[in-house]
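Re: that chain you flagged

S.,

Sorry for the slow reply, it's been a week of failed gels. I finally had a moment to sit down with the sequence you sent. For the record, here it is as I used it:
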Amino acid sequence: MRNPRKAMNIHEAIEHAEEKGREDTPCAEDHQQLALWLRELQELREAQAVGLAGSLREVCSVPGGADFDAALFALAKGLGAMPPNQDFQEVKGIFWSATPYGDQLYRIFSGLLAQGWVKIDMENQTYTWVGPQED
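Prediction finished late last night. Pasting the structure tokens below so you have them in one place:
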């Protein structure tokens, strides 16, 4: 039995919905559908994480690493926040000024740095991908 004061994570929510879906109750069918939707959400999140990792790896794996703007631009594309064919020159202001959008990208990128997925060469101010590799 889970602690009712603690919020469920997606894995626990799927398990809970599946358990309720096996019961002989009027809402069992609804719980089965909910479990299906939650599994789909989980798969979409995982696919998005793989896309993000691939985009950053591609840009930050160039010899010598990528500069800050290129790394943040790759992050935005990897998150699906910008189309793959977006021209950097058209949106560079987002990365060079304090905007909610740019600030959020910076926070996400800082988290990747903190986790060790990307490392910085302080001397050259370039970023290199070192995070988990896809099989």
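What I noticed first: The CA atoms of residues 30 and 75 lie 37 Å apart.

Talk soon,
D.
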